[in-house]
Write a structure and sequence with these properties.
The complex is a heterodimer.
Chain A (H helix, E strand, L loop, with lengths): L1 H15 L8 H34 L11 H29 L3 H4 L6 H20 L3 H11 L6 H36 L1 H25 L10 H18 L1 H11 L1 E5 L2 E5 L2 H35 L19 H15 L1 H26 L5 H22 L16 H4 L4 H30 L4 H28 L3 H7 L6 H27 L4 H27 L4
Antiparallel strand pairs in A: 1-2
Chain B lengths: L1 H23 L5 H21 L26 H24 L5 H20 L1 H9 L10 H22 L7 H17 L5 H5 L14 H21 L4 H19 L18 H15 L3 H19 L12 H22 L8 H26 L14 H6 L1 H6 L4 E5 L2 E5 L1 H53 L15 E9 L9 E9 L3 E5 L6 H9 L6 E6 L2 E2 L4 H6 L1 E4 L11 H11 L4 H14 L15 H13 L5 E5 L7 H16 L3 E5 L3 H7 L2 E6 L2 E7 H6 L4 H10 L7 E3 L9 H12 L1
Parallel strand pairs in B: 5-10, 5-11, 8-9, 9-10, 12-13
Antiparallel strand pairs in B: 1-2, 3-4, 3-6, 6-7, 11-12
Helix pairs in contact in B: 1-6, 2-6, 3-4, 3-5, 3-10, 4-5, 4-6, 4-7, 9-13, 10-11, 10-13, 11-12, 11-13, 12-13, 12-14, 14-17, 20-22, 26-27
The chains are: A mainly alpha, B alpha/beta.
């Protein structure tokens, strides 16, 4: 037990950069401040969810009483659980088998089960932390807007404690086939390429299929009754066909009892206890299965990433390139050779045009007025910015991720700025392709004139570049090279979090301002956006170049 | 009118002659001139505040607006325009003359000489037109006290400017000063523009253009509030304090002048007409702060007025309802611009120090006094039939903007009597007003603190950038016409020179490396010994450019590592203590990438790569990804990367760690061969045996200080065992001096170690 505790503490300290509680007043104050900020963030999330649920309730989507049914919450919980399981599987596969600290852990005098459990426990902490970001505030918001009793609030925390264990346990089991697949892809690159092509093709095909399902005349207002019935049918069917998940939801949110016009929520002790015990049993079963199946395989699977097939490769020729081009070529090569980076770049490249195409196909089917057209443009801007700017989070750790190789930029006989910018180019190019495709789709599917659409896309591109430079600057000014060198991943990289937060802020701000300008209808909106984008980019570029010149060598 | 003109000319001439004679006799007239300025200003203030200028009733030059008011020049547009410009430019002339007596600034001097004097001469020549524009069409028929006041004002102004011109006639301005004047003059004139000029010249254009409700025009007006101070900051930030103060005073007085045109002298007798709104008060306080260098009132403006001005501009009272070009609108915006940005501008130009908590506290006290004073005055003046609304405390303007709940707070009313006076208050509304405004002020403190931090960061960066640019200039100067790619020492042969090199990390007081100096020549294999944390890696990292230099200098082949980093690196190959490579690349891809950066030709790299691949037995793995390599293989790749361009200086940090015996042998051979070609091999190691075998020269470092430098040949000749020397130095006192073993030149250590060394030397 002591060994397990030591393993957990050691890994937690490393991943969280946790310096531990000490009697130092300054540190204690910092901890208190962090806690307060966390409470504030949680409260803001809950407030935002409450407002959304309140507004959703006001719309006659579910019923005339302005309530959101528990079946809807069941759908939300299912989606969140599914996403959690996916991210747990991916995260656990990485953490259990590909983490660099395995090189240390595997050599320690611990039982295999202890190392295995320590990794699961660490992941559980992060999973629980993630749940506090959205799903727990969502359910608390549900309780607030539906007048639930106080007992439900702490009860929710207990439930999500177990649900976090559940998703981790499922993820641990699914990590076996995930690891097996990953190994196959690592050894057979052609298979990997084929899979990616298959996935991309399937996505595009599904997209076209989904678009073909959209009726020609999508009039929500006149067809509302029909849509309302369909929504009710879907929710009912969901509750019937996925009854375990519906029961799980009812365990969390209680039972709704309607007596005439009065709606009450009760906490049925017996039923809840039964469901709770079933959940515990499922968790016990999955954990037991995990211990039984994964744990014996753990060591052999964890050591696989350190094994390489020694292939005999035909010697290639040396190729001299101009020094200005070699940095770009080198970075492109590194990206192409890194399957996870390639995959995420491809996803970004196709996600934006795909979503915009789908969105605008939906809107085209609607009969919108002038205000509606403006909303459509704004929504398009929001989607493009949200995805592209959030993708910039990688730039906030791009230099640190080189780990110990990061020093190479300082040693090489080239101005550091050229090498730093070269690192940003590969993903920027993918994004550029994405923007070009999106531009074409916007032209085809909206009423925007060519010049306006061009101004808009250029403005978005400049905002994207400005945010990219900002994110890269965060990493230059506050590098975490040692953490990435040691572990290969930094769970809550503060630079990435900051970049993501600003991405959301900028996306919503630009969308809001564009919508206001469009509503005002006073003067050319898109040239203004372009000017703002230009100024933002010029400012950030100036700052980036200046900081690299002045600070990079010291960091 | 002729009499007035002649009187002015004679009086001016007398004064000018008197001033000239006094000057010739060496009498200091500066005090007299300053008094004359004050008298001139007082008279100008008097005649300005008697009544509004007649020409201000003109609208859009069409002469037909505002029934009931006589237009001074009838339908004559030309005379109207001439008069308007004379009046306008005269204000600029008077202000520059006044400030010129208190500030000795070339731009002001030139303004007086080349602008003010000519303008006043025009006023004299066109006196009737000038006077009529101010007094009106009946200037010649009905006595108006403004006419003699104008005359006296003109006499004083002319006397001051002409006598100044005569005194300064020999000192001609430089081209730069003239250009500065030409650039400054339009802005200086624009600053004192009477608020009625736009409506006079242009009229109201589209009467729907109003600056309120966040229309596009309103937003443009708000952008101006930010753009102007930023522009002024960049213009004045590097000027002297006198120039900054004079410029800011000019702006505030100029705007103040156009602002006070809304009031008449008689208003001062009726206190309910006094400008006691918060932003009105600031218009008086700010110029007085600049003149008398007051601090507490300034900080009051900084904390209280800036917030108020910002809110007023966001929610303009009254000005948002009238045409944008109307005099009241122009006056509103000028007033609030200055009140908003001037305190901030004065702070950023360092005319005032950053506020402390005490300053903020003082502002709150002044604000509280102001608040309760106007609260009382509002209630008091109601008794005399005057509905005053100082600070919007009495009306529902603010509450209406907020919403119903705010309006509801006004339902609570207190009324009580003191003698015959009935005082009415809205306690809930007014208390909330006070609390909210005070809270905003508290928020302002934190906003300022945040901005100060950002400012300091930006300033630090700016200073570093400036130092960087200066360093580049110094380098070019030092090179004396040679290209920056030329070595500073003029000699690019293989050499490493450290001169007083010191390194400190961050804000540490302790030096990691302290004044280390040594030289390594071509053909030498230099070994660097020392315990862990001695500073070996710090020195190496500073040589190769991974870290900065705190003080001293490092040269590689004549190139300064700090000033000419790229050229220094071109001559260096580095093998770190822990290989760090781009492991997704193959060995070949990585080496070719490095070769490209060092601009190695195709032929040379083919030959070199082939040589080292076979030497290090990497043929089978060279085209595999480096992540499949063993530790030894990766270290060999790092060595290859350092040698592919045949560097004059090859630096290795613990290169033999983790290598098998064959690889160690190969690396040692490479080192010897490389040095044999006349190059330098500089490496650090813990393994004394190897250092002893392959090095020509060694250095021992401990605690960041160089403790010993010796050639291996000398050590051998003197029978000194390197290992014993090393141990003795490591165990020696911290303050032991450098041992330079060069024949019989030993500088000394503590007794035990000294005996060991001396004994060895003697033996």
């Amino acid at each position: 037990m002591n060994t397990l505790i030591t393993l957990v503490k050691m890994q937690l300290k490393e991943k969280l950069n946790f310096k531990g509680l000490s009697i130092d007043a300054k540190k204690a104050l910092r901890v208190v401040l962090s806690l307060l900020i966390w409470v504030l963030k949680f409260s803001l999330s809950t407030l935002a969810c409450s407002v959304i649920l309140f507004l959703v309730g006001k719309l006659p989507i579910f019923d005339e009483l302005g309530r959101v049914p528990d079946t809807f919450m069941s759908v939300m919980l299912t989606v969140m659980l599914f996403l959690s399981v996916c991210s747990c599987t991916a995260g656990l596969t990485k953490a259990m088998y590909f983490s660099r600290d395995n090189a240390v852990l595997l050599t320690l005098p611990c039982k295999p089960i202890e190392v295995y459990l320590s990794k699961l426990i660490i992941f559980f902490f992060f999973e629980l932390k993630k749940n506090f970001s959205f799903i727990i505030p969502l359910f608390w918001a549900y309780f607030i807007t539906h007048g639930h009793d106080f007992i439900f609030y702490p009860w929710l925390l207990v439930c999500f404690l177990l649900l976090s264990i559940l998703t981790v346990a499922i993820g641990a089991l699914l990590s076996i086939p995930a690891m097996w697949l990953s190994n196959i892809f690592r050894l057979h690159k052609s298979l990997q390429t084929a899979s990616i092509i298959l996935v991309v093709t399937a996505t595009i095909a599904s997209l076209f299929f989904a678009v073909s399902l959209i009726p020609e005349d999508l009039n929500l207002r006149t067809n509302w009754d029909y849509i309302f019935i369909k929504i009710q049918e879907f929710l009912t069917a969901f509750a019937e066909n996925l009854s375990p998940l519906y029961d799980l939801t009812r365990m969390i949110v209680g039972e709704t009892v309607v007596v005439g016009p009065v709606v009450t929520v009760i906490f049925p002790l017996a039923a809840t206890l039964l469901r709770f015990l079933v959940l515990l049993a499922v968790i016990a079963l999955l954990t037991g299965l995990g211990l039984l199946i994964v744990q014996p395989l753990f060591y052999s699977m964890a050591s696989k990433p350190f094994e390489y097939l020694k292939n005999r490769v035909k010697p290639k020729k040396n190729r001299a390139l101009p020094s200005w081009f070699t940095c770009i070529y080198n970075e492109m090569l590194k990206v192409f050779k890194d399957s996870s980076k390639m995959f995420s770049n491809i996803v970004i490249m196709i996600a934006i045009p795909v979503l915009i195409f789908l969105l605008n196909s939906l809107f085209l089917a609607m009969n919108t007025d002038n205000f509606g057209d403006k909303m459509i443009i704004s929504f398009n801007i929001l989607i493009v910015l949200l995805i592209s700017l959030n993708a910039n989070a990688y730039a906030a750790s791009i230099y640190s991720r080189d780990g110990r190789s990061a020093y190479l930029i300082k040693v090489q006989p080239k101005a550091p700025i050229a090498l730093l910018i070269a690192k940003l180019l590969p993903t920027t190019l993918f994004c550029l392709v994405s923007f070009i495709l999106t531009f074409g789709i916007l032209l085809a599917s909206t009423t925007l004139p060519f010049l306006d659409a061009l101004c808009l896309m250029l403005a978005i591109l400049l905002i994207y570049l400005a945010h990219l430079l900002y994110s890269a600057e965060l990493d230059i000014m506050n590098p975490h090279t040692e953490i990435y060198a040691a572990i290969g991943e930094y769970e809550s990289d503060p630079n990435e979090l900051k970049s993501t937060a600003i991405a959301f802020l900028v996306s919503f701000a630009v969308t809001g301002i564009t919508l206001l300008l469009l509503i005002e209808d006073a003067s050319p909106v898109y040239p203004k956006l372009l000017t703002a984008g230009l100024l933002a980019f010029a400012y950030r570029a100036r700052l980036f170049f200046s900081k690299v010149k002045v600070y990079y060598k010291e960091k | 009118m002729l009499i007035y003109t002649l009187t002015i000319i004679i009086a001016t001439a007398l004064l000018v002659v008197g001033a000239y004679i006094a000057n010739k006799k060496g009498i200091d007239l500066s005090l007299v001139r300053r008094i004359a300025v004050l008298v001139m200003s007082a008279i100008a203030f008097y005649r300005y505040m008697i009544d509004r200028e007649a020409i201000s009733w003109v609208r859009g030059l069409n002469m037909t607006l505002v029934p009931g008011y006589e237009i001074p020049f009838g339908n004559d547009i030309l005379l109207t325009v001439i008069s308007a410009f004379l009046i306008w430019f005269t204000w600029a002339a008077l202000l520059s003359i006044a400030l010129n007596e208190f500030f000795k600034i070339p731009t002001l001097k030139n303004m007086v000489k080349f602008f003010s004097a000519p303008v006043l001469v025009f006023d004299l020549l066109l006196f009737e037109i000038y006077a009529r524009g101010i007094i009106g069409a009946d200037v010649l028929t009905v006595f108006d006290s403004r006419l003699p006041a104008l005359a006296i004002e003109l006499v004083l102004a002319l006397a001051l400017s002409v006598s100044f011109l005569i005194n300064e006639i020999r000192s001609l301005p430089s081209i730069r000063e003239l250009i500065t004047l030409l650039v400054t003059l339009p802005f200086a004139i624009l600053t004192v523009m009477p608020t009625y000029i736009p409506q006079l010249l242009i009229g109201y254009l589209d009467s729907n253009v109003k600056l309120g409700d966040f229309t596009e025009e309103h937003r443009m007006a708000l952008y101006v509030a930010v753009i102007i101070p930023i522009a002024l900051f960049f213009v004045f930030k590097d000027r002297s304090e006198d120039v900054k103060r004079a410029a800011m005073l000019y702006i505030t007085l100029g705007v103040f002048w156009s602002y006070v045109s809304r009031w008449y002298l008689t208003d001062w007798l009726h206190p309910w007409n006094l400008p006691l709104y918060l932003c009105n008060i600031a218009m008086y306080i700010i110029p007085l702060c600049l003149i008398f260098k007051w601090e507490k009132p300034y900080y009051f403006c900084l904390f209280i007025n800036v917030t108020g001005a910002l809110i007023s501009m966001l929610v303009p009272y009254g000005a948002g309802e009238v045409n944008a070009l109307a005099s009241s609108s122009v006056s509103f915006w000028l007033n609030h611009y200055v009140v908003f940005f001037m305190p901030l501008l004065l702070l950023s130009l360092k005319l005032y120090k950053r506020p402390t908590l005490a300053d903020w506290g003082g502002s709150l006290i002044i604000f509280t006094v102001y608040f309760f004073s106007v609260l009382f005055l509002n209630a008091l003046f109601e008794n005399f039939g005057h509905t005053t609304d100082f600070f919007y405390l009495n009306s529902d303007f603010i509450a209406d903007k907020i919403g119903d709940w705010a309006l509801a707070t006004r339902d609570f009313v207190w009324t009580f009597n003191i003698g015959e006076l009935t005082l009415t208050f809205y306690p809930l509304y007014q208390s909330l007003f006070f609390i909210i405004y005070t809270s905003l002020t508290i928020g302002t403190w934190f906003i300022y603190e945040f901005l100060f931090k950002r400012w300091d960061i930006a300033e630090s960066r700016r200073l570093k950038e400036r130092d960087y640019k200066q360093m580049k200039k110094d380098l070019l100067k030092f090179l004396g016409g040679k290209a920056p790619t030329e070595p500073v020492s003029g000699d690019s042969s293989p050499k490493i020179v450290l001169r007083g090199f010191s390194k400190k990390y961050g804000s540490n007081k302790h030096y990691s490396v302290d004044h280390v100096s040594f030289e390594v020549k071509g053909g030498e294999v230099f070994g660097f010994l020392g315990p862990n944390g001695a500073g070996k890696s710090t020195i190496i990292k500073s040589i190769v450019g991974i870290q900065t230099i705190t003080s001293g200098s490092i040269e590689i082949c004549g190139y300064d590592v700090d000033k000419q980093p790229i050229m220094a690196k071109m001559n260096t190959g580095f093998v770190p203590d822990h290989y760090a490579l781009y492991e997704n690349l193959t060995g070949r891809e990585y080496i070719n990438y490095i070769a490209d950066l060092y601009q190695v030709s195709q032929e040379y790299r083919d030959e070199t790569i082939e040589k080292y691949v076979s030497r290090f037995q990497l043929s089978g793995a060279f085209d595999n990804q480096m992540k499949t390599y063993s530790h030894g293989m990766k270290q060999k790749i790092a060595i290859m990367a350092a040698l592919v361009h045949n560097p004059k200086v090859w630096i290795l940090d613990e290169p033999l760690t983790g290598l098998d015996p064959t690889s160690i042998f190969e690396v040692k051979e490479c080192m010897k061969e490389h040095a044999a070609k006349g190059n330098i091999v500089f490496f650090s190691s813990h393994i004394i045996d190897i250092v002893e075998k392959i090095c020509d020269k060694i250095a021992i470092i401990k605690g960041g200080k160089l403790r010993a430098v010796a050639t291996v040949a000398d050590l051998d000749a003197q029978g000194i065992d390197l290992e014993e020397l090393y141990i003795s130095i490591i165990n020696a006192d911290e303050n032991a001096e450098l041992i330079n073993i060069n024949g019989d030149d030993i500088l000394g250590v503590d007794s035990a170690a000294h005996s060991a060394v001396t004994g060895a030397v003697q033996a």
